[in-house]
Every structure is written in C-alpha cells, then in structure tokens.
Amino acid sequence: MSTTTENCHTWEPPESSFSSKILIFGTGFVALIATPQQLFFADTIKSVAAALIVQISLLTWLWTSRKNPTINWNHLFFAPLALAIFAIVSTTWSPAHTALIEAGRWFLFSLALIVGYNSLRQSDFGAIASTLHWCSLALGIIALLQFWVGLEWFPTAAIPGSTFGNRNFFAEFVAMGIPFSYWVLLRAKSYRAIIIHGISTGIIALSLMSTGARAALLGASASLPILMILTILYYKKNQSATPKIILATGIITTIATIGILGWIPSLNEGVLTENNGRTPIEKMGIRLKSLSKTETYESQSSFDVRVVGWKASLRMIEENPLRGVGAGAWNYNLPIYIPKEYAADVEHIWLAHNEPLQLVSEFGILGWTALAALLWLITRETWRSGRRLAVSHPESTTDDFQKLLVIVSIGILAITSLAGLPLHGAATTYLLAILVTLLLPTSSHNSIQKNSWTPDSSAAKLIPIAAATVATAATAILAFQALRADYYFNKGMQSISIMAKQKANGLQFPAQKQIEAIKDIKTGLSIYPDQGLFLSTVANDIGILRDHESFIWLSRLLKELRPNAPAIRCNLAIAYAEINDIASAKREISDIEASHQDSNCLLFAKFFLASTTNNTDEIIKIGINLARNPKRIDTDAKMRYVFETTIRTAIRTKDLNTAIETLNLRSRLWHDLRASSLYLKGVLLAESNPSKIVTEAMEAFISAIEAAKPQEKIQILQRIPVIYQSEVKKQAR
C-alpha cells in the first residue's frame, strides 16, 4: 500500500461516475421520501434513506474503480471521523444509545465526503442544482397545499411541514436550496424556460414564507443582496451568460408569482387558529415583525425557551471544556444545567436549538476543532473565489460563481443553526456533506497538495470493497430495525391517543385494543427506547386511561433515559402514590429533594402524596403555598385538584382562615367558579356565627349572586341561609 502527496493545480475525479449520480439523486430523494399517515417518523425514514444512499454510493464507487483503486483524501475528512470516534469513546460517560447514533451520523458524514471527493466533479454542480430545485418545488407544492387546504397525506406537528413532519426542518432545507434555484433561473436561455423557472422559484419562495420560520426566512433574506452582487460580478466576466433581458423576465416572473399566489388566504383551520397570518405573505410579515415585539422575548415564549437551552449549553461548556458532556448527551444532562430561576422543570426543551453550542457542549475541544475546520475552509474558498470573480479570471468565472453559491447556501444553514436544528435533520445534514465536497475538489488551487492512497497488492485492493460490503449490510439491518421500532411505536401511540380522547369524552372501547396498543409500544421501545418527546405524550395518554401499571413502566423507562429530569420522577412518584405504593413514592420524592429541591413539580408531588395518605397538615401547608403561587403548577387540572382538595381539607379540619383564603384565590383564578367560591365563602362565614348576620358573609352572598349566571341566581339564593335572603335580594344586582 502506498500513500502519495502531489502538487497540482486542481484535483477532480477523472470522469463522472455512477456513484456521483447516486449521491446527486440522494439530495432530492432524502428530502422527498416520507410515508403517509406517519407509519414511521419523518426523520427516521430520511435518515435511513441517507445512510443507505451513502453506503451504496461508496460500494458502487469502490467496485467501479477496483482496477485502479486510488483513494484521494483531504485533511478535512478527519474532522467528522474524529467526531465519530469520540462519540464511541464517550459511551464510557454518556448514554450509549445516543452516543452510538452520533457516531453513526458523523461516520456516514465522513463517508459522504470521501465518496463525493472521489466521484463528484465541478461539472456536476448543474445536476445538483436542478435536483435541489425540482425537489424543492415538489416539497413546496405539498407545503402550500397543507397551508391552504389542509392536505393530510403527510402528518406534521406544525403546519406546513411538507414531508418533514416539522415546518422548521422543511424551511431549513428549502432555504438552503434557494441559491441553487437561483442558478437554475440564471442558466435558462429562452423565454419559455425562464418563465417556467420563474414560476417554480416563486412557488418555492412562497412555501418558505408559509412556514413563518423566522431563522430560515432571515437566512434566505440575507442571501438575496449577496446573490445580486455575485450576479453583477458574474455578468461582468462571463460573455456567454443568459441575456440580461431574459434574466430580468425570470426575476419579474418570480416576483409576480409571489405577488399573485402570496395573497391567497388559507382555508385550513390549523393555520387560522394560530392567528399568525392567513396568507403566505402575511404570515412572513407577521413572523418577522414579531422579532421587534417585546412579547416575543417574554418568559415561556419560544425565544425564551431557546435562551434557557443556550444558557444550559454555556454552563455545560464552562464545566466540561475539554471532553464535553458526551456525544448525544445534551438532553441527558440538561436538567443539571438549567438556570435555577427555571426550577429545572423545562421538559419541553429537547435540543439546544443552536447547533454550534450543542456540538461544543457535547464534544468539547473536538467540537471547537470541527467548527474551526469548516470555518477555515469556507473563509479560504470565499477569499479565493471572491477575489478571482472580482478581479480578472474570466476563465474560471463559472466555477468561482458556483463555489460562492455553495458558500451562500452553507451561510444560510449557519444562520438557521443559531436558532434551529439543521444538523439534526437528515436532509440538511446530507446536503451539507455534498456542499462541503463541492468546495473540496477545487480547493487545491495554486499548488495545494493532493493526497491519495493506493493499495499495492490484489488482496489489499479487495479490503475496501469487503469493508464497504459489510458496512452496507450492517446499515441495511440497522435501518430495518429502526423502521420496525418506528412502526410499532407509532402504531401503538396512535391507538393510545385515540383511546385517550374517547376516554376523555366518556366513550367506551374494547379493552383488548388497549392491551394490543401497549404491546406495540413495548415492542417498538424494546428495539430503540429513546423516542424523545413522544414518550411523554404517550405517558400522558396512558395516564388518562388510568393504566397505572403501564404508566409506571413507561415512567421508569423515561427515568432511565433522563434520570436528572425532576418532572419525570415527580410523575413516577404520583403514579406510585395512586397505586398506594407509598414507600416508592416517598423514595422518589426524597431523591428529587436531594437534587432539585426548587423544582416546581416537587410541591405538587408532595401534595398528592399527602392527600393520598390523608396527611391533613401537609395538605393545608402545601396547598395554600401552591394556591398563592399557581404558576408553580403546570396544568389547569392539577391546579383545580389542589384548590378543591385544600378547601375540603380546611373545611373538614375547621381551618376557616385557610378555607376562606383559598376560596378567594379560587374565585379570582376561574371565572366559572367565582359564584360557587363566593357562595361557599359566605356559608363558612355565616356558620362561624349562626345567631346573627355576619357582614363579610352578606357581602360574599351578594357578590355570589352578582357573579352567577341568570339560571343559577335563583338556585344560589334559595340555598343562602334564611336570615340573609331578604337583604341579599335588595342589594344584589
């Protein structure tokens, strides 16, 4: 085997290969693939597609070049490869299942770089641009149909998500594709072609507007003036460029498409309920304008939730500067690092929503190194290509312009990564790998060294092919298992969700259905246990069904996955109390007190345990505390339970002051309970001195009558003690 280092003007693969066509096909296929009715989670099937495409393209390239198996490599390959190796090592101090997923992700990223570097040519840029453009158009049409008429082919958590199941993932991908759609527009040579491309580009832009995803919209908006400047420079040097009048027609067509279709109002109830704009243009305007409003940054807003995650990330970096908290361990460690003012209960933060921060917090110094390597590559290529385009290199104008479009696309990803999750989406991560390879082949201008490895013997030539074959087979097996896990979990989750709604509405369903749904969920989780926030959703639905055994099983699993999250242990303590396992409930509460004594959920868990054991002193002590601080209770149902239990206990124990104070607070919090609260307050005050009229009781009865609905007034009046009735009739309005 031999390793060579050569000086060269530029390195490109000798000829376009079938493996390059597979990689190019993947840029569109990974984004488009999805299953109706969510048989699998959107990003799972996209991740499976990306992994198989990378492996198949690798195997294809190795096989087609087996007679002359020279592997050219670049030092940048070591960045994702080092991240993959680190992820495997970090299983010694972080959860193995998430660390190994990170290892696989970065290993596949490095393989994509290797295959791309050895098979993609600069001339493939046009094919990549066309693939991304038409893929974005198809995705955009689906998204707009979801926005306008509620197309339900592909379930999405937030409308419109196209095939991504999430509008932010969709917006991030489409925004990254805008520079390539612009290239397709720029290369149209006839009026017919330019009008078609103008309309399609306008539809793509509209679909992005309809998401209202602010980071993606900002990234796309920031790219527009840069594209205009690059176009001016391109036209100065390229005599064969599309005539300006044709390009102007295309741009006008794009703007006209946006102007005509952008004001079509949505008929989708989900969009109207959000109240963020009825048309794509209106939604974009409202969402971007919201960045200047104070309420956007208030407590518990989406921005505030992100800030909590960012602060936690900074604390992770501060306390673990070298090795980080471990690959994929951000969620696992989050509750430890959440600022105290949030009482460590922010369970809906599942990812940092800032990719650089999460990368560094998980990988430590290696994360910094990977970011620095990417920044160095982008800076170097921006300087070289920008200088040549601006000064005097007409022979390389097209190549430099294309390279700068790639950099603009990566820049859009960089902007979205500051408040989004593009590196946690399979389609955007795959696209990033392809874009980096487009920078690498021509990054060796001016005698930069080319590195290559060539096996010396026939046996050695078979080693890469054998390794790739084994890796492809292993990937296929893992992919099958991942899809099985998703299928069973989704099937069970959807059934449980339907049954929970039926239960809440007083409807009946066969008990066997619930048993089968729980069995499906267990089957899916036995293959892969960490289904993120969906686990909490399923746990809540099982709680509604009053299936204590299954709820405790799932809560224990959640505790294993996130042992530092107090809310999970609080729910487990409550579940133990419900089945009268008081010892286990006390043990969980004791553990929470030791690690998160300021946790909001802790007080409610202690209150529930006290009510279960009929500890009246604790009920009144904790109950009045929670009643005075209702924001420490996360749901209305729990809040009502606290108030009702505290009031009943206070009345039973003759604690008049606590009962009256709790009733006063109850009357202020719930308008529908105001009349009954004031009536009961009046009764308690009247009973404290039944022989004469108590002024405070009279005032309470009058207020109760005034707060009551018309049909309730007579009923309340009839129940008021007789000595108060005549005066109440006179004074009540």
Automatic annotation (TrEMBL):
Localization (cell): Membrane
GO cellular component: membrane
Domain O-antigen ligase-related: 203-371
Pfam families, A to Z: Wzy_C (PF04932)
Major localisation: membrane
Presence of the UniProt keyword Membrane in the record: yes
Membrane topology: Multi-pass membrane protein
Membrane-spanning residues: 22-41, 47-64, 76-97, 103-120, 132-149, 169-186, 193-209, 215-233, 245-264, 365-383, 404-423, 429-448, 460-483
Domain of life: Bacteria
InterPro entries: O-antigen_ligase-rel_domated, WaaL-like
UniProt keyword annotations, A-Z: Membrane, Transmembrane, Transmembrane helix
PANTHER family: TEICHURONIC ACID BIOSYNTHESIS PROTEIN TUAE
Protein name in the entry: O-antigen ligase-related domain-containing protein
Organism encoding this protein: Acidovorax kalamii
